[in-house]
Design brief:
The complex is a heterodimer. Helices cover about 80% and strands about 0% of the residues of chain A. Chain A is mostly helical. In chain A, helix 3 packs across helix 6 (about 100-115) and helix 6 (about 100-115) runs antiparallel to helix 7 (about 120-130). Chain B has helices spanning about 1-20, 25-60, 65-80, 85-100, 105-120, 130-140, 150-155, 165-195. In chain B, helix 5 (about 105-120) runs antiparallel to helix 6 and helix 6 packs antiparallel against helix 8 (about 165-195). The chains are: A mainly alpha, B mainly alpha.
Chain lengths: ~180, ~200
């Protein structure tokens, strides 16, 4: 598993170097274009602010009331069978429905349990390896006027379920419980 | 759906608190969470600015286009019904690569363009073709090389090694994407069997 750890550390710096070298080789105005793209990143960060405020507040209320703990306690016995920590269940359920909602839940999990805890890492990997199925189906089919979605949603949701199981498996394998 | 979930989180929380005697914690949480969310977004800005800036260089210098040549043989196998020189192929490739590099908002227009072309290929009917469902399967399985937003949040909460989830995420993404393709194939063959009957 040392390979995965090395890959984690090297991937980003190597990618950055590759992009910068190629850009320079192609005589691209690297710095100016970086700034241009960066502005898009900034407006993206600002534009997700209301989504996160809304979702984190709702989750905060749900957690502070004790309802989240009650829910986790109730489903615990069912999940121990597949080795899934009940704390990540809300994230797994939210992920296909709302991207910012899942982002809110993930950051909440990382904040409560710590980024380097098993749950923190599992939440990170789950968030990174699945996508907002309902949103993708709605946007992609909606934009071209497809109303009968066929098997698309089933395929997407099953893939999400596999993604959750894969994440549990790989995080357990690499970081242990 | 998201509207209902959102309202339910608040209402269940408040109702539960009224029985549980935790209303003062709920009051704290309302204002604390909102300010945490804003702080989180400011923290996210650093990575989003950096990553989208860097990816703009990859896009403008033609690197992303170049990468699509490498992926072409693979994508041809995944979309056997799309002619190689059809514009749909180009959009599909750009969509996949943009997703791979975490350019969500660059990937979406490409995906929609690809859908339009696939719909034309399918004779403009309102039913999704096999290739359209495959493209959705790829997009919902969350193919990512660098999960930039996740990294940003891990940094924000002082991870000792924010990047140590990159490798595991890559492996999980590969598993998910492969499964999505297999599930997609399975449903396709099931549809075909049904049509024959």
């Amino acid at each position: 598993m040392a390979f995965v750890t090395t890959l984690s550390i090297w991937l980003i710096p190597v990618l950055i170097s590759a992009v910068l070298l190629y850009g320079t080789y192609k005589k691209t105005a690297t710095y100016e274009i970086f700034v241009e793209g960066g502005k898009e990143g900034f407006s993206l960060a600002v534009s997700i602010m209301p989504f996160l405020v809304g979702m984190l507040t709702a989750i905060g209320v749900f957690r502070a009331s004790g309802a989240m703990d009650a829910l986790i306690h109730a489903i615990k016995p069912f999940l121990s069978v597949i080795g899934m920590p009940p704390e990540v269940v809300p994230l797994a359920l939210m992920r296909p429905i709302s991207g910012t909602g899942a982002l809110g839940l993930m950051s909440e999990l990382i904040k409560v349990y710590g980024p380097d805890s098993f749950i923190g890492r599992l939440a990170s990997v789950m968030q990174g390896s699945t996508d907002t199925t309902f949103y993708v189906v709605t946007v992609y089919f909606g934009a071209v006027g497809i109303h009968r979605i066929g098997d698309a949603l089933k395929v997407g949701l099953l893939a999400d379920a596999v993604g959750v199981v894969c994440s549990i498996w790989i995080v357990t394998l690499i970081f242990g419980t | 759906m998201i509207n209902l979930i959102w309202v339910a989180l608040f209402l269940f929380g408040i109702i539960y608190a009224s029985f549980n005697g935790t209303m003062d914690q709920v009051n704290d949480a309302i204002f604390k969470s909102a300010s945490d969310a804003v702080a989180l977004c400011i923290g996210l800005a650093s990575i989003l600015i950096f990553w989208l800036g860097l990816m703009k260089i990859a896009e403008k210098s033609g690197l992303l286009e170049k990468l699509s040549i490498i992926f072409k043989p693979v994508v041809r196998r995944i979309f056997p019904e799309v002619p190689v020189d059809h514009p749909a192929m180009g959009y599909i490739l750009s969509n996949i690569i943009a997703n791979l590099f975490g350019l969500g908002n660059a990937a979406t227009p490409m995906g929609i363009k690809a859908m339009e072309e696939l719909k034309k290929l399918n004779g403009n009917v309102n039913r999704p073709s096999r290739s359209m469902i495959t493209l959705l399967a790829l997009n919902t399985s969350g193919l990512t090389l660098v999960p930039a937003t996740v990294l940003a949040i891990r940094m924000q909460y002082h991870s000792s090694s924010p990047a140590d989830i990159v490798g595991p995420t890559l492996i999980a993404t590969l598993c998910t994407t492969l499964s999505a393709l297999i599930i997609d194939r399975y449903f396709y063959h099931r549809r075909k069997r049904k049509e024959k009957k």
